[in-house]
Every structure is written in structure tokens, then in C-alpha cells.
Amino acid sequence: MPVDDGRGQSATPPPQGTTDQAADPLAGLSDEERAQAEELAQQLAEAREQIANTPASVVVGNHAMGLYELGAIHLSQQPPNLEEARLAIDALGALVEGLEGRLGEHEATLNEALHQIRMAFVQVSRAMEDAAGGQSEEAGEAEEATEE
């Protein structure tokens, strides 16, 4: 049976024994679960407020340093994961170089970090190539020795 919804329009009420999820998304939760959900919602609202009050250059810089760390992690694996490191380093480069002049007071630090991680990538790549070359030379020498 339609009822007046207070705006001069009719709405069909939810069936008896059910709750209107749109009106109360926490319906059906226990008091403890409801309190936890409300606390989490409050924490999220506070985090959003804090982010909104932080300059975008700081947030972008923090993300850029996360890409630096990701690249460093992949380079330090045994064996190093060069493809994953390359992706993280290229993403860092796209951010730092693509936003040149817009990264605020930490731009010089981000440029230095990009330079360092690129140099580390080259060094690790060369070391892996040298190791691979040395292994194939040893295999070739061993093969020659067995043929004699």
C-alpha cells in the first residue's frame, strides 16, 4: 500500500520484517559491529580530511618514493627481477620527468632518487650479464675439456 513519503509523493514501504538498506547501510549489524563500522567510517573521514589538507606535490612525491622502493626491492631479489624493476623505475621516471617543475620542494630529491635507481639498475644488469657470460664460458671450457 503506497504511503506519503513527506514530499507529496507516494512510495511503497519495504515489506514487514525487512530493513531499508538505503536508509541504513549498517542495518543487520550487531551493536558491536555497528560501533566498529562507525569508527572505521570516522577514521576514513579523518584520513580524507588530512589528505585534502596536504599539498598534492607531497602526496605525489610519497607515491614516487614508493615506486623507488618497489624498484629497489626487485633489484635486490636473488636473482634480481629486472623486468619488474624496470617497470617501477620507468613509472618513477614518468612521474618525476613528466611533472618537472611541479613537484615542490622535494623535486631535487626525487630527481636524485631517480638517477640513483637508474644507475643501480644498470649496475645490476651488467653484473647479471657478466655472471651469465662467465657461466657460459665455464660451460664451454668444460665441454672442450671433455672432448680432449
Radius of gyration: 29 Å
Instruction: Please state the structural category.
Output: mainly alpha
Strand content: under 5%
Question: Number of helix segments?
Answer: 4
Measured as a percent range, the helix fraction is 55-70%
Q: What kind of oligomer do you see?
A: single chain
Shape: elongated
For the termini, the CA-CA separation is: 100 Å
Question: Secondary structure elements and their pairing?
Answer:
Blueprint: E1 3-4, E2 10-11, H1 31-52, H2 56-76, H3 82-98, H4 107-147
Antiparallel strand pairs: 1-2
Helix pairs in contact: 2-3, 2-4, 3-4
State the gist of this model:
This protein has 148 residues and is mainly α.
Observed structural traits:
about 150 residues, two-stranded antiparallel sheet, 2 strands, elongated
Q: What does it look like?
A:
With 148 residues, the protein is mainly alpha-helical. The chain has a domain at 56-147. Helices cover 68% and strands 3% of the residues. The chain has 4 helices and 2 strands; from the N terminus they run ββαααα. It has helices at residues 31-52, 56-76, 82-98, 107-147, and strands at 3-4, 10-11. A hairpin with a 5-residue loop joins strand 1 and strand 2 (10-11). The longest helix has 41 residues, at 107-147.
